[in-house]
Amino acid sequence: VNNVTLSCQVQTSPATLLVNVSGKYYEYTLKGEISAQELNNVQDNEMLRKVTFDPEVFFNILLPPIIFYAGYSLKRRHFFRNLGSILAYAFLGTAISCLVIGSVVYGCVALMKVTGQLGGDFYFTDCLLFGAIVSATDPVTVLAIFHELQVDVELYALLFGESVLNDAVAIVLSSSIVAYQPAGDNSHTFDVTAMFKSIGIFLGIFSGSFAMGAATGVVTFTKLREFPLLETGLFFLMSWSTFLLAEACGFTGVVAVLFCGITQAHYTYNNLSTESQHRTKQLFELLNFLAENFIFSYMGLALFTFQNHVFNPTFVVGAFLAIFLGRAANIYPLSFLLNLGRRNKIGTNLQHMMMFAGLRGAMAFALAIRDTATYARQMMFSTTLLIVFFTVWVFGGGTTAMLSCLNIRERRSTKAESAWLFRMWYNFDHNYLKPLLTHSGPPLTTTLPGCCGPIARCLTSPQAYEVSPSVPFLSWCW
Fold it and tell me: Where are the transmembrane segments (predicted)?
């Protein structure tokens, strides 16, 4: 106990305090002096701690219902007809947006260093992480207005599909940037090996999450139509277990839940009883509604209760400029390239509307609040809050006026475009996967070769013969 004050009468603050309580010694280390103002605010700080949640609560509890419902309520016909364009916007567009935003913000950070406005370290990897965070679009308000006004179906499919996959890409992209670790002491220098390792992590996590979500969605094939309540409960538990299983395997649970929802909407939904179909739709719609409203309510609370806000006018202005440039670099060049191969072109007015509809919402907030330990992350979180509020209020509120200005209020009745990839997938899915995994579609006895007759009869459910009465039902198989 050398250099330790053993006295109850302490005149100055020692570095270490040793307290004897009933023969047991407790060591206390000095962290800092508490001012009189901070002492008066102890009760207020205690109240703030009670209304503050662990950031992982948002990511692990509130986001999965939102993402799952996005996949479960997907308009699959229009989604798959525009799959190529949606994938281009979601993958290439998000990567382009991340790079553009990161570069512009890095320029603002360099300006802040020159002018002496920077109060801590802010590296290029932080700028790229900020680009990934605010590249996650969430046009919920815009899509609700689109649905209400029955606007162009192609525009709705492109925006909705992009926003669904864009969230998944932004999550994995941000994780890959955080995992960027160059060799040597400086973890923020450019290293080719580390860059390709991060790209490999991105591809591995995304493909693994996709495979696990799709596989779990197929596994939830149920035959409990006589027990709707049990059927609904099992459906919910299997959907939620997708998230837990993906996280346990080192993948991203939110991404797995998204593809689980898409798979279940396409296959499992057809196996549910009519009552369970209505129940699952209403259940996940309710959970989505509650989670989104809670997150937006907490955003308003966090604006006033977060203790470490860092607002810098230069950074805020640069961030707003960056998100507009990033969105433009995403939409317009990719639309031009996509139109070269599309029969049903993406019109200029639709491109302007897609540019306008780049709102930020719950996903950007959840990604930003996960880590606020450093000066850079605190500034990123504070600026993200402002971006979310501004885009939702201004762009969300101006959607109706913009639709009128661009003259795209009414739904177009154009002939649907069917790319060769979509036609191949549709034929394979309709003839083989749906009969195997659901009660719908033509029986496998009519699509498989004659030599596979015994296997086809055993894999075809009785309900499939009821849907196709022209095919005789062989009762001995079931």
Answer: 57-74, 86-111, 123-146, 158-180, 201-222, 234-262, 283-304, 316-338, 350-369, 381-406
> What's this model's pTM, rounded to 2 decimal places?
0.78
Go through the domains of the chain in sequence order and give each one's CATH number. Answer: 1-33 (no CATH), 55-406 (1.20.1530)
Intra-chain end-to-end CA distance of the chain, in Å? 80
Strands 24-29 and 16-21: antiparallel
With b meaning 16 or more CB within 10 Å and e meaning fewer, what string describes 289-300? eebbeebbebbe
The CA distance from 112 to 118, in Å, is 5
Three-state DSSP class for 17? strand
- Residues 362 and 137: their CA atoms lie apart, in Å, by 9
Mean pLDDT in residue range 310-338 = 94
Label residue 58 by pLDDT band (50, 70, 90): confident
The residues pairing with 343 across neighbouring beta strands, listed in sequence order, are none
Contact 432, 447 (CB under 8 A): yes
Q: Are 253 and 60 in contact (CB under 8 A)?
A: yes
In 226-298, which ranges are E strands? none
| 378-398: pLDDT as tens digits | 999 999 999 999 998 888 888
Residue 227 has which token pair? 């027990």
Structure tokens at 301: 């609370």
